[in-house]
Each structure stands twice: as C-alpha cells, then as structure tokens.
C-alpha cells in the first residue's frame, strides 16, 4: 500500500471500539514529546483528551491530543508545519470549524492520532478538559458514555461524522453539568 492508499484507508476507516489499552497514555506522551521537540514554541500546552485518556473506557485506538495556541490565527499558522511533521488535514473540513483546527496522523491504513488545535484556556480547551476530567472522576458516567459509544458505533459503523454527532448531546450535557458542579463552593474539578 502506497502513502496515498494508506491515507485513503485511514480516512475511510470503520468506527470500531476496543477495550482500554494501558499503552495509550505512553503513546500520547511519546507523540506530545515528538511534537514539542520537532516544533518548539508552537504550543502553549498539549493535553491527552478523548476516550483513550480515560482509564478503562472503550475507544477507537486513536490518540486525541488537544494543543493550545494563543489565537485561531495561530492555529491556522501551525497547519503547514504540522503537515510537514507527519500530520494530514482537510482544508475543506477545517474551513467549517471556527473554534479549532483538526489534523490526523496515520500509519498502515489506520488513524493513530487526532490533533485538535484550539485557543489555550478558551471555551473549547476548557470543555474538552472538563469532559475528560468528569469521565475520569465518575466511573458510572464513563460507563454510560461507553454504552452510548457502543450504540453509536453499531448504528454508524461507516460514518464517522454521524458517530460523532450522535454523541454530541451527551458531551454537551456533561460539560455543562460538570462546569456547574465545579463552580460550586467546595467542589473539586
């Protein structure tokens, strides 16, 4: 399989969930280090997010990384250096996003990483971290999310956008409720 065929296979990859793999945090740490070393000064911070960041949660075996920059103009400016560092993106898809830029890394016809470039400490940054932290702190909530993910994967096995959209309301509710509960006196994030 040549590089173009591998990329096409990754783009068209089926939605499949796997049991939590304890190697996922190390895969995140290695990619974080690779990005920060290869592209020094581009990011204020980078965080492991998504289901691979939640111990015990089923996930697509794709490491989601949230990378913080100073502005959306800065997010736009890092796309070319990231593509030179092994990521691919869709200009058409990114044009539909006003609050982030999306890139992916792939190998052997499958996605390995998603990189979400957002404004550091902005609304998207805070929402992604609230969602991750809520799932980490509440095993029952993580179990409900796992059930929803399994249902969505069965319903949309060949349509990643539909799969993602089907989870959106749950994610919005969790980030809204977690934000409310952590802003109360004595609550911890």
Automatic annotation (TrEMBL):
Pfam families: GrpB (PF04229). This is GrpB family protein. It comes from Hylemonella gracilis ATCC 19624.
